[in-house]
Amino acid sequence: MKKLSARRRHPLAALVVLLFALAVTGGLYAAFAPADKAQADDTAQSLAIKEGKKLFAVGCASCHGTGGQGTSDGPSLVGVGAAAVDFQVGTGRMPAQQPGAQVPRKKNIYSQAEIDQLAAYVASLGAGPAVPGKEQYSKDGADIAKGGELFRTNCAQCHNFTGKGGALTNGKFAPALDGVDPKHIYEAMETGPQNMPSFGDGTLSQSNKKDIVAYLGEVNGDKTASPGGMDLGGLGPVSEGLFGYIFGLGALVAVAIWVAARTAKAKKS
Amino acid sequence: MSNETSATNARRGQAPRGERIADWADGRLGIYSLAKSNMRKIFPDHWSFMLGEICLYSFIIIILTGVYLTLFFHPSMAEVVYHGSYVPMHGIRMTQAFESTLDISFDVRGGLLIRQIHHWAALVFLAGMMVHMMRVFFTGAFRKPREVNWLFGFLLLVLGMFTGFTGYSLPDDLLSGTGVRFIEGVILAMPLVGSYLQMFIFGGEFPGHDIIPRFFTVHVLLLPGIMLGLLVAHLILVFYHKHTQFPGAGKTEKNVVGMPLLPVYMAKAGGFFFLVFGVISVIAAIASINPVWAIGPYRPDQVSTGAQPDWYMGFAEGLVRVMPGWEWTIAGHYTINFGVLIPIIIFPLVLAAIAVYPFVESWVTGDKREHHLLDRPRNAPTRTGFGVAWLIAYLVMLVGGGNDLWATHFHLSINSITWFIRIAFFVGPVLGFIVTKRICMGLQRRDRDKVLHGRESGIIKRLPHGEFIEVHEPLTQEQMHALTQHEQPKPLEIGPEVDENGVKRKIKRSQKLRAKLSKGFYGEDNYIPKPTVEEYEEITSGHGHH
């Protein structure tokens, strides 16, 4: 010990302690980090990443860069997570057809397996939200009424009362949510695509998201009943006014013309 | 009289029961003389004269359905938790007003249908009034002696707008609550009195607990009461003035050609009432309106996109949407919000412009005579142009009120639409005026050609020397009368600037303005001279022209 305490004020002592500390943290990290597990996982994941990388090079790299680092034409994908890829590619938004105010939804040309591979590759670039499991967005056990309240508080100002969409500035828009896969709605809330803010689990808890998805399924799903008859797009007074003018007043004017034409005419003698 | 009656009675036994009842009523109400003077009242036949009837009948439908709705509606802002039959709302806090609207929609027998009839009829009522007003305007039916009735009609339209708005607000849903919030902003934007008025009307800070009950009283009692009175006055004046008619053979300023009130017109009008009721009921049965269950209850911290008023208030919505949000802060803490203040000044001005038009026209043209024959719009190009200009300004703002839906449905930028509206509000009416006037002149020219040369028959004839001509058929006497019966007044003259002694005459500025406007109204640019008898004879009698 004497030897050690004698050298304790040596100019290089601090360096030695630092090296030692680094070695210990590094070692501990290597021992406990989840990376180990991934490595041990098997080759399936790394195979998916490899395949995803190939798909990425063909479909995505021209805008997002060969390593997903981003270019002047597209943002960096480091840390966006698998959920973002599943949403963007799954809804056909990516690969984008052309630059513009906003990338619209279109027909998806990738199979789910390919999307999973792409997602695996992008997820490997940096940690981000994972694709939600089915139980997270299924309507079992969800509170629809609460979902409605949450939807009106957080979503309706852009997406309309029942998710029929709305306009944003300069040609951007909040899309209509008709016929959107519940998984994609969940992912959109989680990742905040394009102009949408992201509602992470700290903002809207997982069960809140589940409630919102269930509410949308109830009021804007394929099986949604419209007790009052045709819903006229669910757009409110503008479409109602147009309908009232064309089919209400229009029909009445037609009736008036009919009545006026069928008059008791004095016979010409 | 009594001797006579008893004599006949003695002859035939007792008079039939109906006659006795009628006699009894006549002795107390004087119905015989009333019926005698009115039963044979003549109404001319034209579909556009029935637009007002559509309004009358839809108003009756609104009252009938409205009474039914009041039986179940609770105009209260007390908070309750919903446990009714609409599952997606279970456990949500809402006001009693909203809860009872849900109950009407889902639990009251026929409630949803009646609610939808009520609301659709309201939209049709307002639309009908608007189109009825256009008919009256473009045919010049507002001229003496009908100016006051024009004003009654205009007041009915304005009151209808506000009755509609208060009714739209009653369910206290998220959509209408946003509209009430909008009104609060409008009130607050009034300089000096705004904040006091707001506290007075809402009974405290927004939203408070008073506004729905107050709107209820205004909606079911105050405004409909005034409207009912105006409506009766409107109809009495229609009876008193007699109906206008389109010009034609045998129709003069002194007669009315048509069908008598009883039995023909009464049967037609009665039948038409049921047709109107039927059409509105069918629409209410097939198309949803204001689905409050999908919209949710109002909460001041929530708002949705696509929040618009019903169409008749869309014009005001447009004004506020496209107005730049300018504001001044005076002395540090008095804010004047021009973004809202200017629209609420323009809104009544635009309405007033159409309301005072009859008085302006009669002042400008100096025409104080009675008119019972309608103008064809083309023969009054300035009036028609003004009407179109007004409509364009109105429609442009209506588009502005729905700018977000135009943006999403036509894939446009909402900012570009807003700029287009801002410019079109000023440029559109001017262009509309010029174009309409030109079209009117073109139509007048065509009328002149038709009178002089006849109708194009579409038959092409080849002459012996090879020339092709189209055969024109001469018009009948009746057709020619319709095309040439109108007057072409000369503009007012203010006389020479100096009198016979060379002294400058005193001419008021208003007189000069009036002469100038009169020239604009009746000047040479406003009419194609009607064909004269000489012209007609020269062409028709001469060298077998076509």
Question: What does this entry look like structurally?
Answer:
The complex is a heterodimer of chains A (269) and B (546). By secondary structure, chain A is mainly alpha-helical. Chain A has helices at 2-6, 13-32, 34-41, 43-59, 61-64, 81-90, 112-125, 134-137, 144-154, 156-159, 182-191, 206-219, 237-261, and strands at 166-167, 173-174. Chain A is built from 13 helices and 2 strands, in the order ααααααααααββααα. A two-stranded antiparallel sheet of chain A has the order 1-2. Chain B contains 21 helices and 8 strands. Chain B has helices at residues 2-12, 17-29, 31-38, 51-70, 96-106, 111-138, 147-169, 174-188, 194-202, 211-241, 261-286, 292-295, 311-322, 338-355, 357-365, 381-401, 403-409, 414-453, 477-484, 509-522, 533-541; strands spanning 42-43, 79-81, 93-95, 259-260, 327-330, 334-337, 455-462, 468-473. In chain B, the strands form 4 sheets. A two-stranded antiparallel ribbon of chain B has the order 1-4. A two-stranded antiparallel sheet of chain B has the order 2-3. In chain B, strands 5-6 form a two-stranded antiparallel ribbon. In chain B, α7 (147-169) packs antiparallel against α10, α8 (174-188) packs antiparallel against α9 (194-202) and α13 crosses α14. The chains are: A mainly alpha (269), B mainly alpha (546). At the A-B interface, α9, α10, β1, β2 and α12 of A face α4, α6, α11, α12 and α13 of B.
Gyration radius of chain A, rounded: 29 Å
Provide the gyration radius of chain B in Å.
Answer: 30 Å
Number of strands of chain B: 8
Our count of helices of chain A gives 13
In the residues of chain A, how many domains can be counted? 2
CATH topology of the largest domain in chain A: Cytochrome Bc1 Complex, Chain D, domain 2
Total helical elements of chain B: 21
Q: Outline of chain A, from the CA principal axes?
A: elongated
In terms of quaternary structure, what is this? heterodimer
